[in-house]
Amino acid sequence: MLGEGILKGLAETARNFAGSFVSAERLTTVEYPEHRIAPIENTRDFPFLVYDGDDWEKGLRCVACQICEKECPPKCIYIEKSTDKKPDYVGKPQIYPARFDIDISVCMSCQICVEVCPFEAIKMDTEFELATTDRFGGLLHDRKQLAKSNEHYHKIHPTEAAEVDARLAEEKAKVEAKAKAAAEAAAAKAAAAAAKPAATPAAPAAKPAAPAAKQDEGEPKP
Amino acid sequence: MIEKLDQIFVLLTGWLVGFLPGFLQPLAGVVIAVAAILVTFPALFAICVLLERKGLGRMQNRIGPNRVGPFGIFQPVADGLKSLTKEDIVPLKADAVVHFLAPVFLVVVVFMGYAVLPVGRHMTLVNMDAGLLFYFAMGASTELSVFMAGWASRNKYSLLGAMRAVAQMISYEVPLLMSSVAVVMITGSLSLNKIVEAQNVYTWGLPHWYIFTPWGFAGFVMFAIAATAETNRSPFDLPEGESELVAGYFTEYSGFKFAEFFLGEYVGMLSISGLGTTLFLGGWSAPLEVLGFVPSWCWFFAKIMMSMCVFIWLRGTLPRLRQDQLMNFAWKFVLPFTLLNLFVAATWRFMGDGWLRWVVCSAVLVIAYVVVGRAGMSREHFGPRSYRYAE
Predict the structure, then answer these.
(1) A160-191: string of b/e by CB count within 10 Å (b at 16+)?
(2) How far is A26 from chain B (nearest CA, A)?
(3) Is this prediction's pTM over 0.80?
(4) For residue B62, which residues of chain A lie inside 8 Å, CB to CB?
């Protein structure tokens, strides 16, 4: 019958109209500033710089290698290298960014800077309430605004952050093992050097130990 | 007391006019009545906009606007202020004079229609003998303003929207008139006051509204469809289809001119609801004889607000038609049906009282509805479009 579908449709909208007053689970929207829906884990919008520990300036993982600056398609990153060095997470002295600016009015949230960073220093944030009354300065975030703790990273992307932490821990362990082996080898060498002039008969006993130490040192390299 | 309440606005006008010297009194009476119309219907427009936004929200399982004032009731005020403070842009190549005149013309013409609508007992601004004719003359003029807007904007979207609007409005003007002609045939008068008086009769406490007769019901349905199309409302809102035409004929309008188009659309809807109420729903007469103590103008406004709710309900339900579907529907279904309805109304008129005319008229209309619905609207015409050259 002609018009049947229209009547069905009218009944459906009437049901919605009445139902939305009585059952809250019918409502598909929430009232935003008061109620929020938690973002899904893969949410991303603009990049931030990860730091370890409590001091953002000391803990910044970024070593100002400028790969992200070069790879950024809309060229929204600006980096100035420092003249001095500070120790990184394994204790090695590294250059750090004296300036690290991201213009979020230019950024297109492509995540390429995150993909290319070899130091796990730049990650995507989920913060979206970035509206400002100053459209030039307000949208140009400097390194202090960009620096966010590793705990924040764990909070917004738990799975990804756990993977990153495991990777960094592994690397750190490797470096420490290497340092330890180097220290042992150095100690053995020193011991051998000390033993040589003191007691010549003892030298044959000490000699086989030195190559063994060298082998230990060589193993973790590849 | 009840009499006085019913006539409160008439008495109030008389009292106010009484302060003036005699020769000024007729003029002052008209000015007061016009001012009342110019205040009442834009106020209703604000209420309708709020109702629409809240109602549509609820139909889509949303809450709707609720920030401005308690429950968002001041949202129309905020909207109005916003459109007043916006920049008014006229395109460089536009015909500036016509571009300016189009919204003014629309609003003027739409308000002219209210001159003949009986808002309550003895509450018609101009009691014209050819009131219905005057109303349709004014109603048809809105097409001109729409085309003025589209043409003067010098914008392809505006022009396309205007052309669609003119095609659609002319197509649906015919069934709109035809469905009203049945009422004129039965009443024997073009005067809207006489049409209401003819319906303000009760049998066993029930009113003699035309919608309660077979031809009146069919006529009312056709009138409602044509009126929806005339006012460019969803599902017939092709002229302003924002998915394909930005905003249709008022694409190039901003600020207060845009607000004027908006006002014109809603006041036009209120006015055509008023006409439908007058023709088929008994105008200001009470729905039951025992409710006669309620002032007549209350009934009129209650009825037009009910029609507005139906407009909103339809908008929340139906998707937009395609241009060919729109034209098919007008010329192949609505027009033949209104023509048939004329014959049915004539039959009703000449068969005299009795139950036989109920049976005959209802049967003719139901059979015609089924047959026209099957034949005219079969899938052949309304199904997926076939592309002769694209395949």
Answers:
(1) bbeebeeebeeeeeeeeeeeebeeebeebeee
(2) 6
(3) no
(4) 20, 27-29
Interchain CB distance below 8 Å, A13 and B55: no
Q: Do B59 and A16 touch (CB under 8 A)?
A: yes
Our measurement of the distance from residue A40's CA atom to the centroid of its chain's CA atoms, rounded to an integer in Å, reads 18
Q: Residue B170: give the domain boundaries.
A: 88-373
Number of domains in chain B: 1
- Tell me: the pLDDT tens digits for A28-83? 888 888 888 888 888 888 999 988 888 888 888 888 888 999 999 999 999 998 88
Distance CA B369, CA B218 (A): 9
Instruction: Identify whether B188 is part of a domain.
Output: yes
Cβ contact A17–B55 (<8 Å): yes
Q: Which residues contact B226 (CB under 8 A, 6 or more apart)?
A: B172, B173, B175, B176, B179, B334
Task: Say if B310 falls within a structural domain.
Answer: yes
Of residues B59, B372, B377, nearest to A17 (C-beta): B59
The pLDDT tens digits of the residues spanning B124-161 come to: 888 888 889 999 988 888 888 988 988 888 888 888 88
Tell me the nearest-neighbour CA distance from A34 into chain B, angstroms: 12
Rg of chain B, C-alpha, whole Å:
22
- Run of H or E including B134: helix B131-152
Residue B62, chain A, CB below 8 Å: the answer is: yes
ipTM value of the model? 0.77
